[in-house]
Structure formats: C-alpha cells, structure tokens
Amino acid sequence: MVDQLKSALESIRTGLRQSEYLCDDQLAGSIHLAISLGRPLLLEGDAGVGKTALAKAVSEMLDRPLIRLQCFEGLDHHDAVYEWNYGRQLTEIRLAEAAAKRVESASIYSEEFLIKKPILRALQEPDGAVLLIDEIDRSDEAFEAYLLEALSDYQVSIPEIGTVQSTTVPIVILTSNGTRDLSDALRRRCLYHYLEYPDVSREAEILRIKVPEADLRLVEQSAQFVNTLRKEDLEKKPGIAESIDWLRALTLHGMHSLPDDPLLIKGSLSCLIKTARDRTDVSEDVLQRLLG
Amino acid sequence: MKTCSNDYSAEPGLPVGRVAEFCRYLRENGLQTTTRDAELFIEVLGLAGPGVGVARVEQLWRPIACRSLKDWKIWSELFQLFWFPHKTKGSVKVTGSTRKSRDLRQMIEKSQSMAESAAGTAPVVGDSPAISDDQIEQQKKQKAAGGASSVDPIGRDIESQWMPSDLTLLERIARAVRQQLLNVPTRRWRLSDRGRTLDIRKTAQSMIRFAGDGLIPSWQVRRRETPQIVMVIDVSRSMESYAAFYLRLARAFSRWLPVRVFVFHVRYSEITEFLLRDNPKIQEKIDAVTAGFQGGTKIAWCIRQICFEDNAISLNRRTRVWVFSDGYDTDQPTDLRDVLRRVRGRGATVEWFYPNKTVAGMSQCIQLIKPLVKNWYSAANLTELESSVRGLN
User: Fold this and answer.
1) Which residues partner with A155 through β-bridges?
2) Chain A residues closer than 8 Å to B64 by CB
3) pLDDT tens digits for B350-367?
C-alpha cells in the first residue's frame, strides 16, 4: 500500500511534469488528497507562483475538462451557477399561444431552458471536471456563503427544479491572493496549500522546460538573479511568469549569459519589475550588487 | 508521552486516541482542527497503508490541518514537537493535555524574575530572544529619549481607576465608532430586489432578451461596505502606562466592530480570539500580555511581518490599520515609512492613535510618516479619545 501511495505521488509528479508543471512532494501530496478524498483544494500564495497554472496542469494530467470561474466583485449565482433563458421561455410561450395550447410552468422551467454556468457545468460533467474557482477573494462574502453547499455536498439547489447532485465529483481548486480574509466556513471545507516561490534549482528547471531555446548558463543565472531580486524590498515581487518572460527577452537579445554591466539588462527589466517605485528602488547600484 | 514509531500501524490503537490527542494539541496551539479533520487524518493513514514514513504522514496531514499561512508555517514544528518531543532541544514536556488553570500574569512575572536573575539575560515574553544587559541599558536610555512613558507620563494607573462612568464612556465611544464606520453607503451601486433605483442599463439589456416585448426591471441600492479594522497595539516598555488602557479599548471595540487585534514590541502576537471570549480569566490573560514589557520596539518590522511576510491580514481598500503607539521605534527611521508606503500601496488606510502630547514632539520616524497617515488621534485617556474619534470617517 505504501508502494501504491509512492507510485500515486510519483505519477502525479510525472503527469504534471508532462504538462510542464514541476511540483514538489508536498504539493503532489495535496493534489493526491484532493483527488482521493474528494475535497476542494484552496491554494494561497503570492501572485505569479503558479496557482492557476496548477489547475490547468491537473486538468491536462487527468484528461478532464477545465472549467474556470473567474471571481470578481458582484459575482452572483446567475454568473456562477445558472440562469434561466428568458428569451427562449418567451418564445415557447408565444408558440404555445399561437397553437392555442396551455403552457405548463414545469415545461418552461426545465433543464432545456437552463443556461448552465461554470459550477453547474462542472457538477454535471459526466466524467468529472476540474473546476477552477480563481481569485475567490475577489468575490463578495455572500457568494462565498453560496459556494458552501456546492463545495461540501457537490450539489446546488435550483428552486424551480430541485437539487442538482454531481454525477462524478469534480476536482475543485480555489485560488486566493489574500486581498480579503476568507471565511472559516469555507476554509474548513477545503484542503489548504500555500504555494511559495520555487527555490533556485526548481526555478531553473522550470525555466529550462518553458524556454528550451535559452542557454543553460543563462537559465541558471536568471533563476539566481530573480531569486535574489525577490529578497529585495519590492512592492511587487516577480513571479515565475515574469521570470519566464525575462528569460525569453534575454534570449531574444541574443544573450548566452548575464552580462556584468547592469546597463545591458536594464532595458529588459520591465519584464520583472512592474511598479514605478520598484523601478526607482532597483537602481544600477542594486543591479550591480545583484549581478555580482 | 509515548513517542510514535515510524510505522504508524505498529502501535496498537494509535490512530484514534493519539490522533485525537494530537488534534487537541493543535487546537491548543492555535489551529482550528475539527473532529472531521481527525477523521480525515485516520482516513489518510488508511489510504497510505501500514509502514508509511513519518515524513509522508506529516506531508499528507498538513493540507488537512492547516487553514492559513500561519498554520502552514508552524505545522512542521508542532508535528515534530508532539510526535517526537525527545528530538527537540530543551526539557519541555509535550503532553497534548489541557494545561491547568493558572495565573498567567504571575507566571510571566515569575519567569521574568528568574530570567533576570540568570546571568546576562533580559526579561522575555514567550519565545522572545534574550538580550544583553548593555542592550537593556541602551534601550532604557533610548526609551527615555523618545518613549511615551518617560517623556509624557500620564501620572496615574489607568487600569486601576476604571469607574462605571469610564466603562459607560468606553462603550459610548465604541458605539460611536461603529455608527461612523459601519455600513457607510459608498458611491457604488449593487443590484438588489429591494432597491428603489432602477438600473437603466441592465433593464434595457433585459429587453433585448424579450425582443423588446418585455423587460425585467433591475433595481439597485447603494453598496455598503464594512471596513476591516486592524488594531496594532504597542505594548513595549515605553508604552507601559497606556498598553492596558489600549487593550481594554480593543476589547470594547471588538464587541462592536469587526476588528483584528495585534500586540507587539519586538515581536507580535494576535489576540483577537482572546477578545471575543467573555470570561473573567480572559482580561487577566490580555493584561498578562503587557506584563512582559520588553525593551525595544520594532514597529516597522512588526507591521511588515503582519501585513506582508506572514500575511496575517489581507490588505485592501477596505482595510483600516489603526496603530496605537508613541512612535518610538528601534528600527531605522526610514523603515516605517517604507512599510507604511507599501500598506498604502495596497489601498489600505493608516490611522495613528498616540498617547503623546503632540505629533510634532514625536520621534523622527513619525515625522517621516506624516504624509502616509490619514488621521492622527490623540488618545492618552478616554476623554481625549472621545473627542478625537468624533472626526473619524
């Protein structure tokens, strides 16, 4: 059985790697639990550490459709779960009137007239889906409360139809950037994983996979540079996506290793540094130190 | 305590009893582990099978037990301390059972006196690092140069003079603050069936669905927002005359407002949970926080840890950070400016409650952060505070 667990974790790591996502043992364990226990996985971490990318990679690995719900302020169940197709209902009523037939309310409030939104689609996906509820912290508390039923029992209630239960439990991944505290009720229903920035060697490996055309020496130096840059007091630390963009830019400039002169990389730093204050703070002296 | 062998199945009856003890131990240390989590722990052991390694169990239980970054960070240490106490340095015995009731203040004071009598160590609270005599002397001098207690003593022990009228006034202040801050309508609108204003655009859009023959009126109301208040209270030695007062204030506010309360000197600790519980022991526990006054104050460092490093709070435009301090900081003067700039950068507002006579007379770092602080409130006593908070908006 231990061998089974080991091989399950290994297959998760390999599967994700095939989707160009590198994960460590801890993350593989969390995904394994989310799949085996059928519980949602709440991912927290700085922007750009790969939370959304993980959901995409899991969907590829399991060969299940990825259904994404992007949260925003004011999001409600009409956007997330279902909505009635009023236009079609009206047409149906008109047609019935023209044919001098009586319209039963049950006939126009049936699944045929239901516009399914991400959560309902994920619950009704016959082979199961990967449901990504992205940036849950951007939604309102009321929507978060609405989610509780869907996440704990994998069902939603539609007053006109009744309760819709999932056929195959979807794998639910929630992400949060921590702009708002999530309720304890939601946290309690989820497994929790905090994604941190990768260490230098893992980041170099990611860069190697994502930018295969880059020189290996440049890859390692870039990973080291970005890692050191993150330790500076920056408003917005560069994520992995920024790191990949920067390496691509350097490769496009024909570089095979990081130059000693900070001026030569200053132009490409807009890939890494995204605020005016950080731009000012990362002066040539700081760059020289980081390169040194 | 029996230690757990690497083979979890080897110890008869391990899962249920020991896992329950472990869950209780986690709860004692601030994690919100539930019975369902305990069930999941056992279920996971079943999934993993006999002979599973400790490291693997630690990994698999972590996503179940943790709810936040704070939990995530302390998990490994707690796991090791519970299951392998013999591996940890020191002689603290971890039993997993609830500790007996005790007078916390007395305990801290006793540990302080013991620490002071030991050679070359400073009084400490919890796991605060020890500092040398020289440092203490230096800190005393520094405190005299800038701290509220030495420069601007209140001349009375506020804590011992709580009269019924004071309590009434305190409650009145908390209510007034609540009325001023909570449910303030914003300029933004949200859809609501109970609204009285028609959202013309949405209503017109709904007509398209019915090919112009019908419409669904969309009503809207003003969006009301509840601010998230974060009280950061300085309990360092220079604030000893005021800390108990501010803690009582925090307790009153927590009854009326959604607040998160942190106390700090050279480290920080969240006490929100204490404030929400209502029993006679709690005030004792809260007061005990200030019993361990330690020289040195790291305002910038603590705010950075709370807001950014530990993500203890979420910063957004609804967050109001209320700092209760005399502004005496042993960090570099520019550090506080830098960290508050980051706080403001996330849209949060910073307000400062000070016991000093004037802001102008406060430390250099306070002078540097003046443009970053939205409001300054004089709060040396209840009367001052009441007149100060009238302007709160």
Assistant:
1) A165
2) 33, 191
3) 999 988 777 777 788 888
Q: Could you tell me the CATH number of the domain that includes residue A146? A: 3.40.50.300
Q: Is A106 helix (H, G, I), strand (E, B) or coil?
A: helix
Expressed in angstroms, the distance from the first to the final Cα of chain B is 55
Domain count, chain A: 2
CB contact, 8 Å: A74 with chain B?
Answer: yes
Kindly report, residue by residue over B298-351, the tens digit of the pLDDT: 899 999 988 888 877 888 888 899 999 988 888 888 889 989 998 998 889 999
Final residue belonging to a domain, choices A163, A179, A194 = A194
Task: Check whether residue A187 and residue A209 sit in a common domain.
Answer: no
Q: ipTM of the predicted structure? A: 0.86
* CB contact set of B225 (below 8 Å; sequence gap of 6+): B183, B184, B186, B318
Rounded to 5 degrees, what are φ and ψ at B190?
Answer: -140, 150
Instruction: Kindly provide the residue ranges of all beta strands, DSSP E only, lying in B235-348, ordered along the sequence.
Output: 259-264, 268-270, 319-324
From A194, A211, A243, give the residue that closes a domain.
A194
Dihedral angle sign, alpha carbons of residues B111, B271, B80, A24: negative
Cβ contact A29:B59 at 8 Å: yes
For A184, the closest chain B residue by CA position comes to B67
Q: Are A141 and A277 in the same domain? A: no
Same domain for A173 and A49: yes
Instruction: Flag whether residue A97 sits within 8 Å of chain B, measured between CB atoms.
Output: no
Residues of B in contact with A34 (CB under 8 A): 63
Q: What CA–CA distance (Å, rounded) separates B339 from B47?
A: 46
Of residues A179, A192, A275, nearest to B63 (C-beta): A192
First-to-last C-alpha distance (Å) of chain A: 50
**Chain A interface test: which of B64, B205, B372 (most A C-beta within 10 Å):** B64
Question: Contacts of residue A87 in chain B, CB cutoff 8 Å?
Answer: 209-211
What is the span of the domain harbouring residue A220?
A: 200-291
